[in-house]
Amino acid sequence: MDLAIGKIITDNENKTEYKNYSDRQFSFTLMSASKISSVEMLISKSILLKTKIEFDKNFGLGTSFPSGEEYIFSTDIIKKKGKVCFFPINICIHPMESSGKDFFSSQNKIQAKGAMLCRIFGSKKAKFLALIWAIKKYTKYKKYIGFFYFKKTLFSGIENFSSLNKSIK
Question: Could you give the percent of the chain with pLDDT greater than 90?
Fold first, then answer.
């Protein structure tokens, strides 16, 4: 096992779960890995040594793209033929607050999601997935911003990451 994902509880007395978890063990795919939160991760040292995978320093709190680091990390492992699995066991207690639940309150946060998709899937596929994601998440952000602004900002994140990636290479 290269990356094990476990359940988080937010209240030790009532065993309140951080999110709705499966009762069964399963393996993650490139798409389903988007549901992984960093606090749920148990990482094998051997996969890190063998593949040299590390968290992308362009993503996460305190960076230009303030989210997406756990999704990128998980998919990097999957792309290297690593095994990423969920186990229905409690691994820790963590407050309910999460930086990942707020993906729309600033231009930076929205752009980070577009950049994240570009980092994982490449520019063309990222644009298609960003459009699907904008539609799927519409009910979460519609009280605060419009659909077309949200989509445009996701796409600008894709373009910003593409430009950054070209300058690095």
Answer: 80
Least confident of 53-67, 75-89, 95-109: 95-109
Asked if the model's pLDDT at residue 140 lies above 70, the reply is: yes
DSSP string, the chain: --EEEEEEEEETTTTEESS---SS-EE--TTGGGG--GGGEEE-HHHHHHH-----TTBSTTSSB-S-HHHHHHHHHHHTT--EEEEEEEEEE--S--GGG--SSSHHHHHHHHHHHHHHH-HHHHHHHHHHHHHHTHHHHTTTS-HHHHHHHHHHHHHHHHHHHHHH-
Q: Which residues 6+ apart lie within 8 Å of 107 measured at CB?
A: 153
CB 114 within 8 A of CB 161: yes
How far is residue 156's CA from residue 144's CA, in Å, rounded to a whole number?
Answer: 19
Residue 164 has what pLDDT?
83
Strand 26-27 with 3-11, pairing:
unpaired
Smallest CA-to-CA distance from 92 within 44, 45, 39 is with: 39
- CA count, 13 A, side-chain hemisphere, 88: 7
Place of tokens 């990356």: 3
